[in-house]
Structures are given as structure tokens and as C-alpha cells.
Design brief:
Copper Amine Oxidase, Chain A, domain 1; alpha+beta; single chain; 6-stranded mixed β-sheet; 17 strands; 12 helices; 496 residues
Length: 496
């Protein structure tokens, strides 16, 4: 074939090839384009969701700032706890040093031992406090919730331990203070001779200034006034003691128990005075924590009033001699169970004379003498409990005005008898709920001639129909005995 005929064919073949290529490209692009159009929106949606979820997990600036503030507050709280613990340890060291200094000066072996025990308790309390954690989680860059909870729990435990240690130390300090008060003489218990008291004499009776008395016993003084705003009496008091006086009558109160003084309070130029004999034999013994006179309390003489030919008070079939013996025997039984030696003036329906009873006291020399009686009155109205003691020299009977000038054997123990009467009266009132008719003074032979502290107890009125039924019952008699025992316990704590 000639060359001029090949060129058109070659050109035609190239054109055909180009056309086929274009067609193939067109066919290939069409489905790809359709898939792209269909899949592009779905992919974009998935990407947006992923971005949104990721955005949610990223804390905001405000949340980061709040978390940092919370961590800073916790850091401050832990630092405060640590500072409190260090301060408490410093206080313990200081307390320990003070206790060591006091122990070095102590002369009595018992006092030194008590202080050593207190120091050991204090050291044990300090050792029970867990130390602060060595690591400080707040300062860490990353604080997990679990670690935060653990540190919070440790902080709570440290706070509780500190609180417990402080309470233990306070209790130890209080016990130590009480022991020291029991071992040493309180400034409020100093000798009467060392007290500076202003004195005056009125109608041959010596008086001491009541304000001065209050000062010497660490008490506060205050006047009491009536409805007309006139001075009617006075009160001296502190947190544990309160005594009231009347300027018109002899009766007053000591810690709520009625007490009859020998003379009313005297007002001289609007200044308060009480009789010197009242101060020495009644008030001073009731204000003291301990008696200045060392006496025993092992042997007790119990006197059942009346007996035999002397029935005492009578109300129908009720006889005083029967009930006094019943109560006396019940008291004997309980005292012997407690380890006391008991001597009875009578154990049956016999009548030892008053002189014989006093002679028994002098013979056996008991530490205490308690006489049991029942009261009576012309009227059926009176009821209640009274406790008597001997009249001091220079004083008068509660219902009399004659001044006693002769000393009896019981006057040697006026102060102790006063405290014994007060404690027995208080104990019986608490045990029976009876009416308080007070502690009184009367010239009764058996207690005036006793050779030891002595009281006579009127347990109630047989002339009162309601009270006589109580006195006749074993249950009430047991209450009376319980009250006397409580009084003896109170008196025993008064003895040195």
C-alpha cells in the first residue's frame, strides 16, 4: 500500500483511540461520582459526633478553676489540721514539763506516784494520735478521686484522734486536780485562828462579820430583801456551797437543807454579823471540805429510844418504843454488813435509864452515837424529820432563849456533831422524801453527855395519821435506815 494512504488511516485510528479513552473515563467517573455524593454526608456526620464527644470530655476553664479552688481549700484544711496537731504536741510537751517540775518539788511519795501516773496517761494519749501523712496529695499535679477519698478519711481519723486525746487529757487533769485537793488542805480550810474577822459584841453575845467569813472561804456575799425592799437576810455562796441567813429568825439553809442557827443574823449599821458560836460550831464545820480534827468511825452506838415501862409517844396501837427498836435493829444489821462494830443500848423491850445510856457510851467509847426517836404533837398536822445535836456553850436551844453556860462532854465534839446532824438530815430527806424540819439544838441528856459526836433523829410524827402508817411499814423503815447510812457516808468523807 502506498504511504499517502496510511496517514489518514493512522489519524483515524488515533481519533478512535482517543474517543474510546474519553468514553471509558466518562463511564468510570459516573459511578465514582455517585458514591462520593452518597457517602460524603455520612462521613461528615461521624466526624462531627466524634469531635463533639471529645469536646465533652475536655474540662472547661471554669471547671478547671473550680477544681483548683477546691484542691486549694483542701490543702488549707490539711495544713490547718497539721498546725493544730503540732500545737497540741507542743502543749503536751509543755504540760509534761510542768508536771515534771511539780513532781520534783513534791515531798510526799503518794503525791509523786499520782503525778507519775497522770504523766503516763498523758504520754499514752499523745502516742495514740496518728502522725500526718508523709505525702501531700494536694500538691500533686493529678489527684484521683480514690486518693482524695483516702486522704480525706485520714484527715477525719486524725481529727477524731486529736479530739479523743484532748478529752483524755482534760479528764486526767481534772482527776489530778481532785487528787491534789484531797491530799492537801484547801485555802478555804485554813485554821480559824488565821482568819481575819471583824468582831463586835451585842447584848453580851460576840459576833463576827459575815462578809469577812465569806472572803475567808472564797464565797460571794449578797443581801436578800423582802417585798418592801428591806434587808431580810443574806446569802454566801459559790458553785458548790450556798448558805442563807435570816435577820428575823434563827433558821437558814445549807445547800437546801434547813439548819437552825443559835441566833439570827445581826444587822449593825447595815453590816451583817453572825454569832461567833454559830460560826465556830455550826457554819465552819458545814463549809469545810475536811474536819480539822482527826476522828475515827469504826464503832457506832445505836440507841433505840424509850422501851419497857416508857412507851414514848402513843397513837392508838402505835407505840414509839416499838418502832424505834425495829429501826435500830435494821440499822444494826446494815452497819454490821458494812463492817462496823455496833453497840446497842437495848435489844428488847427494856428501859435503860438516860443515865445508863450515857454510861454505856462512856464505857465503850464509840466513835458515834445515834439515838432513834419518833416525834409527836398535840395537833395532827405536823409531819417531817428533825435531827438534834447538843447545845454549844454560849448558845440557846432552838425553841429557847436561855444561854447555856456549863460545858458537857459532848461539847468537845460540837463541830463534828454539827456536820453529822447535817449529813444525816440530808440523807434521810433524800431517802424518804419527808418534810424537812431542819437540824436543831436541844438539851437532850443522852446526846449532851455523850463522849463522842452524837445526834438524835426524830424520824417522823406518830401523831400524824399519814406519817404513822409509813413509820409502821418495813419498807419505810428501810428507807429511814438507808437515809442514815447515806448520812454516815457523807460524814465519813468529811473526816481526815
Amino acid at each position: 500500500m502506498p504511504k499517502k494512504n496510511l496517514l489518514p488511516s493512522f489519524l483515524a485510528a488515533c481519533a478512535l483511540l482517543a474517543s474510546v479513552s474519553v468514553m471509558a473515563q466518562t463511564v468510570t467517573d459516573v459511578p465514582l461520582s455517585d458514591v462520593a455524593v452518597k457517602t460524603k454526608p455520612a462521613a461528615q456526620s461521624a466526624v462531627q459526633e466524634a469531635v463533639s464527644e471529645a469536646a465533652k470530655k475536655i474540662p472547661t476553664a471554669e471547671e478547671i478553676a473550680a477544681e483548683r479552688a477546691r484542691l486549694e481549700r483542701m490543702r488549707a484544711a490539711l495544713a490547718a489540721e497539721r498546725a493544730a496537731l503540732e500545737q497540741y504536741k507542743a502543749d503536751l510537751v509543755k504540760r509534761q514539763q510542768e508536771a515534771d517540775a511539780a513532781a520534783a518539788k513534791a515531798k510526799a511519795e503518794a503525791a509523786a506516784k499520782a503525778k507519775a501516773e497522770a504523766e503516763a496517761k498523758a504520754a499514752g494519749s499523745a502516742a495514740s494520735i496518728p502522725p500526718p501523712a508523709q505525702d501531700d496529695p494536694v500538691s500533686a499535679k493529678v489527684l484521683s478521686p480514690e486518693e482524695l477519698q483516702r486522704q480525706r478519711q485520714r484527715a477525719i481519723e486524725r481529727a477524731k484522734a486529736i479530739e479523743k486525746a484532748v478529752a483524755t487529757q482534760r479528764a486526767a487533769d481534772a482527776k489530778k486536780k481532785a487528787a491534789a485537793a484531797a491530799q492537801t488542805t484547801s485555802p478555804k480550810d485554813k485554821d480559824v485562828a488565821a482568819m481575819k474577822l471583824r468582831k463586835i459584841t451585842q447584848n453580851k453575845v460576840r459576833y463576827v462579820h459575815l462578809r469577812d467569813v465569806a472572803v475567808n472561804y472564797g464565797l460571794t456575799f449578797a443581801y436578800t430583801k423582802n417585798k418592801s425592799n428591806k434587808i431580810s437576810g443574806a446569802t454566801i455562796y459559790d458553785k458548790t456551797r450556798k448558805v442563807t441567813f435570816s435577820s428575823a429568825y434563827r433558821d437558814g439553809t445549807v445547800n437546801g437543807v434547813q439548819v437552825y442557827f443559835l441566833y439570827p443574823m445581826l444587822l449593825k449599821n447595815n453590816e451583817p454579823y453572825i454569832s461567833e458560836v454559830d460560826f465556830l460550831t455550826c457554819l465552819d464545820p458545814l463549809l469545810r471540805y475536811k474536819t480539822p480534827v482527826k476522828l475515827g468511825m469504826k464503832t457506832i452506838m445505836v440507841d433505840a429510844g424509850h422501851g419497857g415501862s416508857d412507851p414514848g409517844a402513843i397513837n392508838g396501837s402505835h407505840k414509839e418504843k416499838v418502832y424505834t427498836l425495829q429501826i435500830a435493829k435494821r440499822l444494826q444489821t446494815q452497819l454490821e454488813k458494812l463492817g462496823f462494830r455496833v453497840i446497842m443500848t437495848r435489844t428488847g423491850d427494856t428501859y435503860p435509864t438516860l443515865q445508863e445510856r450515857a454510861a454505856l457510851c462512856k464505857k465503850y467509847k464509840p466513835d458515834l452515837y445515834i439515838s432513834i426517836h419518833c416525834n409527836s404533837a398535840a395537833s395532827k398536822t405536823p409531819s417531817g424529820i428533825e435531827t438534834y445535836r447538843a447545845v454549844p456553850v454560849g448558845g440557846t436551844e432552838t425553841k429557847g432563849s436561855k444561854v447555856k453556860t456549863e460545858k458537857q462532854s459532848a461539847n468537845e465534839f460540837d463541830a463534828n456533831s454539827s456536820r453529822l446532824a447535817y449529813e444525816v438530815q440530808k440523807g434521810m430527806l433524800a431517802a424518804t422524801g419527808g418534810t424537812d424540819r431542819g437540824t436543831r439544838h436541844q438539851a437532850i441528856y443522852v446526846i449532851g453527855n455523850a463522849s463522842c459526836p452524837a445526834v438524835l433523829v426524830e424520824v417522823g410524827y406518830l401523831s400524824n395519821e399519814a406519817e404513822v402508817k409509813k413509820i409502821a411499814s418495813p419498807e419505810y423503815q428501810n428507807k429511814i435506815v438507808s437515809g442514815i447510812l447515806a448520812g454516815l457516808a457523807g460524814y465519813g468523807s468529811f473526816l481526815r
